[in-house]
Specification:
- The protein is mainly alpha-helical.
- The protein has a domain of 207 residues.
- It has 20 helices and four strands.
- A hairpin with a 2-residue loop joins β3 and β4.
- α4 runs antiparallel to α5.
- The longest helix is centred in the middle third of the chain and has 32 residues.
- The relative contact order is 0.10.
């Protein structure tokens, strides 16, 4: 009897270490009864996530696959996973004081975030639709729980239920699309599909493949909260605990975007003219909604929800540029611009949510934009750093957000998508209003009740790092740009 070959585990070493580490921490939390066990587990989770970054560098090759080609690592996965790990670590770090204050200090909280992160890392490395679906479910199951983690809050329970129901719907749509693709193309492997789905000039692809592709894109639109499947975002962002809102705005977004790019470019690269139209519509609608719907918002978390919808619209411009099949340069530049934008988006949002987590009065969290009135007088340092993040998200030079939008609009022009670039600029101008409104409230509105501003050392360190990058990235953006360039090039290596 012939024994089965043991797969090469080195490409998946970071994921294996995280999985074993999180199981160990779970048993530690269950069996060790100590008062400060939550704090210990939180720090251990952060260390576990950060250790995975050098492990990726050790185990990385130009292109390696394992588990029968289902799991793949290359420069592209390295780039995306680095930002996923950094953002998840930052969320655990800034949430520590919040969960203590809200009496939800349970050891399961950081562990669930790490489990969700594990699913996100597997998403990015998926090279098969079956691996894609399983990794999405691993991420989603953990996120359903953390969304409703504040059990004594009706808003949090509602947010968890909404996210669960609509997340299940999106998974169902995606699974139906995958089944159609498998039925018409005969495989779920990205590499095999890339060889099968090739249509010479003048030939149309099978209708079943196009329909399947549309369903898959609808599922992705849910995950990245792009219009028209954005409906869960404002309610979930507002109702979920603030650190969970920060998590939703960061790591799952970049993971889903990373997977969307690979799915569109690798197996369906030759169908660029088919899916480009859908991406353009999603980009236009998301930018428009994100710009106009946020104007009247009073709750800052709800405003950030519409802001994230708008930012995903800007990022999708790069993917639309990558849909130009006959221009390799435009495709590369589109993906590179998208990756640069996502990297900058992570830094800006980590800093912004760190500021939002400091909004409390008399031991209670407050979320109204008007609650920031007079912050420049009571805490001038926080007002300055908050203003920097707002100006950056508005895309005002010379801050990092301007650099991201510049690259995105340039990629659209290179791909001859001039109307998309013009609409993006106009939406950016409109969107700048509600970011600048927050600055106006902090500096020019009289304070009603002052906030209790105490900045823990963890949040302070995050604010310093993200603020420094946001201000000075324009002076030396090359590490981010070169990393994005290598990542984009890796997608086209056969």
């Amino acid at each position: 009897m012939q024994m089965a070959n043991i797969p090469n585990l080195m490409p998946a070493l970071p994921e294996i270490v995280i999985a074993l580490g999180v199981l160990t921490l779970l048993m530690l939390g269950v069996f060790v009864k100590r008062t400060n066990i939550v704090r210990t587990i939180s720090y251990a989770c952060i260390i576990l996530l950060l250790v995975a970054i050098p492990l990726m560098l050790i185990s990385s090759e130009e292109r390696a696959s394992t588990f029968g080609g289902v799991f793949i690592v290359d420069n592209y996965t390295l780039y995306i996973k680095t930002f996923i790990l950094l953002s998840a670590s930052a969320v655990i770090l800034i949430s520590k004081n919040y969960i203590e204050m809200q009496a939800i200090e349970f050891f399961e909280f950081p562990i669930l975030i790490v489990l969700a992160t594990l699913g996100m890392m597997m998403m990015v490395s998926s090279n098969d639709f079956l691996g894609l679906y399983l990794s999405i479910e691993l991420q989603s199951l953990a996120l359903y729980v953390v969304a409703a983690f504040q059990r004594n809050s009706a808003r949090s329970s509602e947010a968890g239920l909404k996210y669960f129901v609509l997340g299940a719907l999106s998974s169902g749509l995606m699974l139906y699309g995958i089944s159609l693709i498998y039925g018409f193309a005969g495989s779920t492997s990205f590499d095999i599909l890339a060889q099968v789905i090739i249509y010479p000039d003048g030939m149309r692809p099978a209708a079943g493949i196009i329909v399947g592709l549309v369903f898959i894109m609808a599922g992705f639109a849910f995950k990245i909260s792009a219009v028209p499947f954005h409906m869960w975002t404002p309610d979930v962002y507002e109702g979920a605990p603030t650190p969970v809102t920060a998590l939703f705005a960061l790591a799952p977004k970049i993971a889903a975007m990373g997977l969307l790019i690979r799915t569109m470019v690798v197996p369906f690269g030759d169908l660029g003219s088919e899916w480009q139209q859908i991406i353009i519509f999603m980009a236009l609608a998301s930018m428009g909604l994100g710009a106009f719907a946020a104007i009247n918002q009073k709750n800052i978390k709800r405003m950030m929800a519409y802001s994230s919808i708008g930012h995903m619209g800007y990022a999708l411009i790069g993917l639309a540029a990558a849909g130009v099949v006959d221009d390799i340069s435009a495709r590369n530049h589109g993906i590179q611009a998208m990756l640069v934008y996502l990297g900058i988006y992570i830094f800006m949002n980590v800093g912004t949510f760190s500021c939002i987590l400091l909004m409390k009065r008399e031991g209670r969290m407050v979320e109204g934009i008007d609650d920031l009135a007079g912050l420049s007088k009571t805490s001038p340092g926080l007002a300055i750093i908050f203003s920097i993040f707002m100006f950056s998200m508005a895309g005002i030079p010379p801050l990092a957000g301007f650099l991201g939008k510049l690259y995105i609009f340039e990629s659209a022009i290179n791909a001859n998508l001039h109307l998309l670039a013009i609409f993006g600029v106009l939406a950016s101008v409109v969107g700048a209003f509600y970011y600048i409104r927050i600055v106006k409230v902090m500096y020019f509105d009289p304070p009603i009740d002052t906030l209790d501003i105490t900045i823990p050392i963890e949040v302070r360190s995050i604010l310093i790092i993200t603020g420094f990058i946001t201000i000075f990235l324009i002076l030396y953006p090359m590490p981010l740009i070169i990393g994005a360039e290598h990542a984009a090039a890796a997608l086209f290596i056969k």
